[in-house]
Amino acid sequence: MQTSDQINLVIAVATCLSVLGSLAVAYLTLHITKANRLTAELMKEQLEASTRPYIQISPAVRIGSQLIELRIANTGQSNAEDLKLDLAQDYYFNAEPSEAKNIRKYTAFVHPISSFSPRAELVFDLGVGPKIFTNSERCPQRFTITATYKHGSKQYSESTAVDLQPLQLTSVPHDPVADHLEELVKAVKQISSELRSHRD
Predict the structure, then answer these.
(1) Whether residue 30 has pLDDT greater than 90
(2) Which spans in the chain are helix H?
(3) Are 103 and 91 in contact (CB under 8 A)?
(4) Bridge partners for 155 per DSSP
(5) Structure confidence at residue 78 (pLDDT)
(6) Where are the domains of the chain?
(7) Whole-angstrom distance, CA of residue 59 vs CA of residue 126
(8) What is the distance between the alpha carbons of residues 48 and 151, in angstroms, rounded to a whole number?
């Protein structure tokens, strides 16, 4: 093999190695770009998840009473825009026969709420336990509320199944501070009464 052939062979091998090296760099660059894109998308999703509104719907028993309430709150960090609440079936406050007591026809369930701010809350009285749990036709024990709202360019539609049955036969919740205040009010009334009797 002549020297010129050897030189040509070395050049050809070097060219092949250079091409293979370029392909490897291109392959790695493509995968790094894809990984960066995925990372950017994940960061965007995490940012959105941490700043978006969240509509939470849950029943609760009012402290110190048998009154059951329905609470609808924005537990997120941004306004829920154009919030529409849809109660899937009729629900009558305290099983009353009047259509004016049909929660499904209350303003919040009929008209959109233009902006529902963070920590905003709507509270609807459903009725007292004994009335609710003995009139399941007018006070369904299970019902669904769908919340549809916007945040930026995204629209969300979330359905929440509300189940009142676990609240049946539970004890009335008490607030120790409220109980203590009630005791103080009674003591003040008693002292006031005794002072009046001493004056007379």
Answers:
(1) no
(2) 3-51, 107-110, 129-132, 176-199
(3) yes
(4) 150
(5) 95
(6) 1-43, 55-174
(7) 9
(8) 10
Token digits of residue 140: 């369904």
- Higher-confidence residue of 108 and 43: namely 108
- State if pTM tops 0.85: no
Could you give the CA distance from residue 29 to residue 22 in angstroms, rounded to a whole number? 10
Which residue, 90, 88, 87, 107, is CA-closest to 98?
90
CATH of 55-174, one of 2.40.128, 2.30.30, 2.60.40, 2.170.140: 2.60.40
For residue 21, pLDDT beyond 80:
no
Are the CB atoms for 154 and 175 separated by under 8 Å?
no
Is 69:62 a contact under the CB 8 Å cutoff?
A: yes
pLDDT digits (tens, 9 = 90+) for 66-90: 899 999 999 999 999 999 999 999 9
Mean pLDDT of the chain: 85
DSSP structure string for 60-99: EEPTTSSEEEEEEEE-SSS-EEEEEEEESS--BGGG-S-G
CA distance 143 to 88: 7
Q: Is the pLDDT of residue 38 over 90?
A: no
- The span from the CA of 76 to the CA of 117, in Å, is 9
Q: For residues 130 and 138, what is the distance between their CA atoms, to the nearest angstrom? A: 13
Residue 9 has pLDDT above 80, yes or no: no
Compute the average pLDDT of residues 2-17.
71
Residue with tokens 């995925």: 38
